[in-house]
Amino acid sequence: MVKDDRSILVDCHTLEIRDWIEASGLPLPDKILHTHVQPEHCRESDGFPAAEILVHEELRELASDPEAYARNTSTHGENPAKWPTTMGRETYGIGGSITMLPPEAPLAVSRTFRSGDEVEWNGLQFRVIRLPGHSRHHSGFLMEQHGQAWCLFSGDLIRNNSRLVNVYDLEDAYGSTRLSSQPEVLTLAGSLGVDCFLPSTGPVIANGRAQARDLSRAIRQYEEALRWTSGAFHALKMPEPEPVGRYHGVADGVYQMGGFGNCIVFIDGQGRGLMVDPGPCDYENDSREQDFLDDLELLEREAGLREIEVALITHFHGDHYDMAPALKTRYPTCRLAAWSLVADVIEDPHAFPYGFRLPGYFESFEKGTSQKSEGVITAPFTGTIGWYWKNNRSDNVVVTVKAKGHDKKEE
């Protein structure tokens, strides 16, 4: 936006916009506002060194501090029992998956704003409107002059033709999104007294209030359709499968862990077994490994299992993986199989930013804060075995390691 030989930029999709501004003979922006922080909307880098850059106060770290971001995406879930409360919500992700990415290059944030603030620029006021949904702390800017509202910079709340930008960025927790709250947010946007919506994605929306109403109505209809029942349908009563330990037979030769989920075992006519995700979700159980092995013994005795030949790992969560060492101990020739990217994380978890390493994601023999310690570890399976230290202080710590035995040092 240009006014009196000055300009302001709201979100920045490409640094090439600088070339376009200069080629058009327009002034470079002296202020940049961000409706939210995502790589595709924060690409100014250091291309506008004279501009003041503003982001929401809760997004300053994400926008400008890659070291702090790295620390907050490399945490270890110390207490899995908190899952029913957090539902996997983390600083920058959900259940071990990073859902909030920083800019490709950190921003030189000058100051921050919060909902309800007014940002002054060249005789105009940009009132910060809380429009949560499409990412955390998503905001809009209602542009006003002399008390009259002219337009709404709506971020990624809505795009032209009454559409959502995407559903992915509406994720809220493990298994849930903020979709159901969007009709209320859209109603708020439509109540601000302006028709001109300037979205971060797509063309200008000239009839923003009408499109906000249409999208709100469409979301409500969609959610109502999900709850619809005819009132006449009655599910056929299925015979209860005979349990084998904690497993339930769901088809011939197919057994699924009941109650704790995840583990599925396929057994063919020759007793060969395939297991999917060896890691039942029962962290409160102190005897979980022994119970896991006892169930395998029951499958051998009552379901004809001879051995598990292959275990498939769908993703790197403890409750889908952490019984793999025990499985390999019982069946030494069992092969672990996973998508190549998942395999890389399993073999060297500390090389990856991952927000929810539950206990059991890696083999550990001791945890403590002592000045000196010693111990022995036997690798339970092929892969990278190592030691990990976390320094919670700001000063440097020197760690000296002395090792002996059959090992290979890797830098």
The assigned CATH architecture of the largest domain is: 4-Layer Sandwich
Distance between the termini: 52 Å
Look at the structure and name the CATH superfamily of the largest domain.
Ribonuclease Z/Hydroxyacylglutathione hydrolase-like
Please give the count of helices.
10
What features would you describe in this structure?
The chain has 10 helices and 21 strands. It is of the alpha/beta class and 411 residues long. β15 (243-244) and β16 (247-251) form a beta hairpin. α5 (182-190) runs antiparallel to α6 (208-227). The longest helix is centred in the middle third of the chain and has 20 residues, at 208-227.
What's the structural blueprint in terms of helices and strands?
Blueprint: E1 2-3, E2 6-10, H1 17-23, E3 29-33, E4 52-56, H2 60-64, H3 66-72, H4 83-86, E5 93-94, E6 97-98, E7 109-113, E8 118-121, E9 124-130, E10 139-145, E11 148-155, E12 171-173, E13 176-177, H5 182-190, E14 197-199, H6 208-227, E15 243-244, E16 247-251, E17 254-257, E18 264-267, E19 272-276, H7 288-302, E20 307-313, H8 318-321, H9 324-330, E21 335-338, H10 340-347
Parallel strand pairs: 2-3, 3-4, 4-7, 11-14, 19-20, 20-21
Antiparallel strand pairs: 1-2, 5-6, 8-9, 9-10, 10-11, 12-13, 15-16, 16-17, 17-18, 18-19
Helix pairs in contact: 5-6
